[in-house]
Amino acid sequence: MLAAVLKEVDGLVLEEVPIPEPGFGEVVVRIKSCGFCATDYKAIKGIRHNVTFPLVPGHEPSGIVYAVGPGVRHVAEGDAVICQPSGFCGACVHCKVGNTHYCDHAFTTGGDGPEDVWPGAFAEYMKTTESCLLHKPEAISFDAAALTEPLSGAWKGIIKHSEMQVGDDVVIIGVGGIGLLCLMVARAAGAGRLIAIDPSPYARTNAQKLGATHVIDPQEGDAYEQVYGIIPSGPDLVVEAAGPIAAVELMARLRRRGTRWNVFGITTHETFELDGGLTHFLEGRMDASFGTNPAAMQRAIRLMESGLVDTEAIISHRFGLSEIHRAIEVMGQPERNKVMIQI
Questions:
Q1: Which of 9, 97, 168, 199 shows the smallest number of beta carbons within 10 Å?
Q2: pTM above 0.85, yes or no
Q3: Which residues pair with 319 in a beta bridge?
Q4: Which residues partner with 35 through β-bridges?
Q5: CA–CA dist 24, 31 (Å, integer)
Q6: Complete domains list, the chain, with CATH
Q7: Which pLDDT belongs to residue 113?
Q8: Positive or negative CA dihedral for 51, 5, 29, 310?
Q9: What distance lies between CA 298 and its chain's CA centroid?
Q10: Rounded-to-integer distance, Cα 335 and Cα 324, Å
Q11: CA distances (Å), 98 to each of 93, 102, 286, 342, in order?
């Protein structure tokens, strides 16, 4: 099969490798579509350093079951499926309480987090476990279904952890692909004023199309003053979906008493300062959203199936696997949203 193998920083090579064979409880999926995540791009460009070479990236796939191993009971050859990248044992204390993304024996297919990294979905076929597969509803396209994992993270952050309520005033800092999914979840959940902050005119235009009531350019004056000009009493929820530490610092500044804030976008190990006394008296709550689990994945599928969130709306580019080097170039450009690899 054809696979994109990352041999070293900036060394992604298309080459023929053997099709994987499924072991006990394992399934081989013929990949149809895979989202190109910023964490994939950071691995390719050496921006994140927790990468062991060689690596087949790609952790947002959908596809069709190609082969099943012994013990597989719930999927069969030919089934259309959605793949959860974060694998889990099901037996440790974290799995027992539903936090499978904290699993003591976790693995990931093509992604980030656990030390055990399996080859990912920038390939014609990918092996995973049956427990990581969900049936794809017929009404959802393979492209839309491939974005179940990032949508599930947005739902988990906005609804599960930060407990957004109908009518809440919400600020989203950074409205690239994941920020737009957060924005659409907030809109579907009944946000009141929904403010998108991004220096990119392209991103702000997309945010307006997808439900933002207001957009702010942080380069045109103080973003804090602009937010409080729209919401004099301050936001109920602030979500950092941008990545740079400056976005986290802005999120901390935007707090008023009772503000919930979610550290969602930053994945690099950088620090910022907090006034301890002020944080105490503001009595806000900080959350985060890392990875996903089966419950969040099921919620994301329901959001798509019911029409509340259209993940295809954030797709800006589609490339075949053989064009992946062009896709890498586009990932480095400012005017792009979600890039998909179709296989």
A1: 97
A2: yes
A3: 341
A4: 340
A5: 20
A6: 2-146+310-342 (3.90.180.10), 154-288 (3.40.50.720)
A7: 85
A8: positive
A9: 15
A10: 18
A11: 9, 9, 21, 32
